[in-house]
Specification:
By secondary structure, this protein is an alpha/beta fold. The protein folds into two domains: 313 residues, ABC transporter transmembrane region fold, CATH 1.20.1560.10; 237 residues, Rossmann fold (3-Layer(aba) Sandwich). The protein is 64% helix and 9% strand. It is built from 23 helices and ten strands. The strands form two sheets. Strands 6-7-8-3-9-10 form a six-stranded mixed sheet, with helices on both faces. A four-stranded antiparallel sheet has the order 2-1-4-5, covered by helices on one side. A hairpin with a 2-residue loop joins strand 4 and strand 5. The longest helix has 53 residues. It is elongated. The structure holds adenosine-5'-triphosphate (ATP) and magnesium ion. The site of magnesium ion has 5 residues, from helix 13.
């Protein structure tokens, strides 16, 4: 977890905001500029009214007609309503567009992040950043931006008018306000830290909700509701606590700002009265000064609120940039693109690999093997022996160590990741099904090629299952494929792989949940694939020897090490895990083995 450095909190590091403005807000500069123009006009009119009031008072005292002054004040008041609305539209709307673009870019970026990133980030927290934090960034550039301009213009314009009336009085008036702003530094720091904490807690909550929804069957099945509610309450309470501290901090700001405004007013009257007496200032001018101060007070009072919006926006922006700055798969991979169309030869050169979060414990250790192009290779091993890890590395779902795996003589780590993935088909052990139709789940496309689709479904032995579904291929499979059995889900994933086709097929335990008859059909499919023109290289993980006996060669893994390899017929003659499995699956006593293998 990153800690907030004092630099961070103090707002010294404004770079994220500048980056945001450059990349997303610059394109709306004309809208902002026009908005700022109207805002200036709004404030200009607002500060001109006190002058007119001053003239009116002096005119009244001199018993002169008031008509022109009153008309001017009325016209200015009406104009303010109009230009004020325009300025708000021109400044707020870009914020909406900015939010749209930011979210679009974030989503596209998330799709390109490597699995190692997702191993270290919780999904619920990412969702919270995409929803809540982006919202706060919009508020920061919209409301926040408007307020900054508004306060700056109000201070500049009233200051200018005040100085024109009396520089001395202006200096005295601004003293309490300057003191309040200086005191606010501590307050801003604290607000930033708390805002960041609060957004993180919201991410925690979101993650808890998501995890509980995903594990609902487990929670209800094990009547663990109480424990989950209590756990949730703790997170929710932590969020509430921070929120309350922010509220207290915010409410502290208002009295301080109101007090400093009141003090300014007091100073104007105490210091202004002698000036009127000495004739340096007319009564009307003093009244105009007081009116100017009252124009200035509302924007000053909104400073507390404005700063809290800005600090929360900054905290949220940092959380967003943490995601958007994470290096993508392309940035981590090489750029060599290999030609497709032929099963690649693969060489594993003493590969050792540990998962980033595994504390250095290797999942694969010094694995050396050669897989000729176009061959069908079985991968066998007990649970946890590293079979899936090997396939994940070949599919570049994990980052292979440099030099550990070569494909047709080129280091896998140097290949362009997108081009490599175009060539391979990886059917994972726990396939993910989308809550869409069967058809979409196979083709991952709204408009699939029907001929290819039907062939893939047939080859994956899915046809008999389709007959039982109400709408065949158009049946929606429910939330993450909940309507389908484990074996059906596996074969949908297999059909997905066959529909796509590729030069390297990585099939992770796709035949573990099928009956004998289906298995025979699928093995035939794989054999015919191997004989096809394209001759893909096939790696198939399985613990079923009835499947592995049809492969060219089998790699035997044991606790992350390659302990044996060879043809099925040779492996069953040597003692080791493979032969043990053969004996167990055949139920043959060891002494009958030799005669069976010889026959
Ligand atoms: N994402 C991960 N992070 C850390 N360790 C992992 C991760 N995935 C797997 N492992 C560890 O790596 C080792 C090998 O796992 P792997 O999934 O490759 O086994 P497997 O041979 O496919 O097992 P199974 O037959 O049960 O599917 C295991 O000890 C496992 O705990
Ligand atoms: Mg596995």
């Amino acid at each position: 977890m990153r800690t907030t450095s004092p630099d961070h909190a103090a707002g010294v590091r404004s770079k994220p905001v500048i980056r945001l403005l450059r990349r997303y807000a610059w394109r709306y500069r004309w809208s902002y500029l026009a908005g700022a123009g109207f805002l200036w006009l709004t404030n200009y009119l607002a500060v001109s009214i006190p002058g007119q009031i001053g003239h009116a008072i002096d005119a009244l005292r001199a018993s002169q007609p008031l008509g022109r002054n009153v008309a001017a004040i009325a016209v200015m008041g009406l104009a303010i309503i109009f230009v004020r609305s325009l300025s708000r539209i021109l400044i707020f709307n870009p914020g909406r567009y900015l939010e749209y673009h930011l979210r679009q870019d974030l989503f596209a970026h998330l799709l390109r992040l490597p699995s190692a990133f997702y191993a270290g980030h919780r999904t619920g927290d990412i969702i919270s950043r995409a929803a809540n934090d982006i919202g706060w960034v919009r508020v920061m550039v919209g409301f926040g931006g408007l307020q900054v301009m508004n306060v700056a213009l109000a201070v500049a314009l009233t200051g200018w008018k005040m100085v024109a009336l009396s520089p001395r009085l202006t200096g005295l008036t601004l003293l309490p306000i300057v003191a309040a702003v200086a005191a606010a530094q501590w307050w801003i720091r604290r607000l930033f830290t708390l805002s960041r904490q609060n957004q993180r807690q919201l991410g925690d909550i979101s993650d808890r909700v998501l995890g509980s929804l995903q594990g609902m069957a487990t929670i209800q099945g094990f009547t663990a509701e109480r424990a989950f509610i209590d756990g949730f309450r703790r997170k929710n309470l932590a969020w509430l606590g921070t929120g309350m501290r922010i509220a207290v901090l915010r409410s502290l700001a208002l009295p301080v700002l109101v007090l400093s405004g009141g003090l300014s007013l007091y100073i104007v009257i105490v210091a202004g009265a002698p000036l009127v007496e000495s004739g340096a200032l007319t009564v009307g001018q003093l009244a105009a000064f007081v009116a100017l101060l009252t124009v200035l007070l509302p924007p000053l009072r909104s400073i507390g609120w404005m700063l809290s919006v800005l600090q929360r926006g900054r905290a949220s922006l940092e959380r967003l940039l943490e995601l958007m700055d994470a290096p993508t798969e392309e940035q981590l991979s090489g750029s060599i693109r290999t030609a497709s169309g032929r099963g690649p030869a693969i060489v594993l050169d003493g590969m050792t690999f540990s998962y980033p979060g595994a504390g250095g414990r290797p999942a694969l250790e010094e694995v050396a093997a050669e897989v000729p192009g176009g061959s069908v290779v079985g991968v066998f091993g007990r649970t946890g022996s590293g079979k899936s890890t090997l396939l994940r590395l070949l599919a570049r779902l994990e980052q292979p160590p440099p030099g550990a795996i070569s494909v047709d003589g080129i280091d896998l780590a140097d290949l362009d990741i997108a081009a490599w993935r175009e060539r391979i088909v990886a059917v994972t052990q726990r396939p993910f099904l989308f809550s869409e139709t069967m058809e979409f789940n196979v083709a991952l496309d709204e408009h699939p090629d029907q001929q290819r689709l039907h062939r893939a479904v047939r080859d994956a032995a899915l046809e008999p299952d389709l007959e039982a579904l109400p709408d065949g291929l158009r049946t929606v499979v429910g939330e993450r494929g909940i309507m389908l059995s484990g074996g059906q889900r596996q074969r949908v994933a297999l059909a997905r792989g066959l529909y796509r086709g590729g030069d390297l097929l990585l099939l992770d335990d796709v035949l573990s949940a099928v009956d004998h008859e289906t298995e025979v059909r699928l093995v035939e499919t794989l054999a015919s694939l191997a004989r096809s023109d394209r001759q893909p290289t096939v790696l198939i993980v399985s613990n079923r020897l009835s499947v592995l006996q049809h492969t060219d060669t089998v790699l035997v893994l044991h606790r992350g090490r390659l302990v044996d390899s060879g043809e099925h017929s040779a492996l069953i003659l040597r003692s080791g895990p493979y032969r043990d499995a053969w004996l167990a699956q055949r139920n043959v006593p060891p002494d009958e083995m030799a005669s069976e293998a010889a026959s």
